[in-house]
Amino acid sequence: MPLKNFSNEKIMRLKDKVAIVTGSSSGIGKAIIERFAAEGAKVAVNYLPGGPHEKEGLDLVSRLGECALAAPGDVSKRGDVERMIGDVVAKFGRLDIAINNAGMEIKKPFLEVTDDEWNKVMTVNLFGSYLVSQVAARQMVKQGPGGKLIFISSVHEDIPFPEYTAYCASKGGIRMMMRNLAMELAPYKINCNNIAPGAIATPINQAVLDDPQAKKNAISEIPWGRFGRPEEVASVAVFLAGDESEYVTGSTYYVDGGLTQQVTTY
Ligand code: NAD
């Protein structure tokens, strides 16, 4: 693939690739779907049936037209995941890229967290990523050759976040799972990588974005001086999903305006 385009023709970096993005009717996932479609991919938009972003998902699919497929389902249920990926293969003939983006968080002091709250976060974030990765990887191995598994983890795969212990544990777990899969799936040429966003302006951060003081405090910790945009995460996803990242596996790409550098000045 040429690295530079000297003609006026736009390079379609994902032309005819088939991708599923979980939790993609809002925020980062939605931005990835829109960018992938613009890069020539065929896309499956997963959303939680009855969830707050169901209508947004259906609108997105109808706006994108033939290159898009609605994939309603709960990522933490094997039956839903197998049906969704089956539908993708039935419509588009194969699956090249699976992006584990669906996620949730519950803010609670550790001493007050209930078992149900802990299990909910771990089940959607970590177990859901395992399920989607396994079902997708089985399909990729069956169809050959190769494939791409991408995980939207978080800077909290590495840095602590008090009152979000289950969230941090789930994202740290995703980091280790991704590194393991990178080893196990290398013989099949399935690249496995994480994208770890910092503070991105999406619905998951709505409470902070709506509170001027909380927003100011958050921005004060970001060297780049602002929240990130979902499109800035999507740009890295295009690279990791495309042919130019052939030799990249087992890595985390931070998209965080420098947040993880944690400079001390005393
Ligand atoms: P978001 O809330 O808009 O996106 C999360 C999506 O996951 C929603 O559409 C939600 O409906 C969906 N979802 C939740 N449970 C699901 C389930 N069981 N099955 C299917 N879908 C489900 O927020 P976002 O910021 O776009 O989050 C996307 C990912 O990025 C998440 O994994 C989140 O942890 C991660 N992330 C976000 C930030 C940030 O600052 N926004 C930072 C680091 C990591």
Number of helices: 8
Largest sheet: 7 strands, parallel
Shape: globular
H/E series, N to C?
Answer: EHEHEHEHEHEHHHE
Here the CATH topology equals: Rossmann fold
Describe the structure.
The chain is an alpha/beta fold. It has a single domain (18-264), classed as NAD(P)-binding Rossmann-like Domain (Rossmann fold). The protein is 42% helix and 14% strand. The chain has eight helices and seven strands; from the N terminus they run βαβαβαβαβαβαααβ. It has helices at 27-38, 54-64, 78-92, 115-143, 165-185, 206-209, 212-220, 230-241; strands at residues 18-21, 42-47, 68-72, 97-100, 147-152, 190-197, 252-255. The chain has a seven-stranded parallel beta sheet with strand order 3-2-1-4-5-6-7, sandwiched between helices. α1 (27-38) packs across α8 (230-241), α3 runs parallel beside α4 (115-143) and α4 runs parallel beside α5 (165-185). The longest helix has 29 residues, at 115-143. The radius of gyration is 18 Å and the shape is globular. The termini are far apart. The model has no long low-confidence stretch (mean pLDDT 96).
Summarize this structure as a short list of keywords or feature phrases.
266 residues; Rossmann fold; 8 helices; alpha/beta; 42% helix; binds nicotinamide-adenine-dinucleotide
Outline of this structure?
The chain is built from eight helices and seven strands. It is α/β, with parallel strands linked by helices.
Give the arrangement of secondary structure elements.
Elements: E1 18-21, H1 27-38, E2 42-47, H2 54-64, E3 68-72, H3 78-92, E4 97-100, H4 115-143, E5 147-152, H5 165-185, E6 190-197, H6 206-209, H7 212-220, H8 230-241, E7 252-255
Parallel strand pairs: 1-2, 1-4, 2-3, 4-5, 5-6, 6-7
Helix pairs in contact: 1-8, 3-4, 4-5
The chain binds nicotinamide-adenine-dinucleotide.
Nicotinamide-adenine-dinucleotide is lined by residues 22-23, 25-29, 46, 48, 51, 53, 74-76, 101-104, 124, 128, 152, 154, 197, 199-200, 202-205.
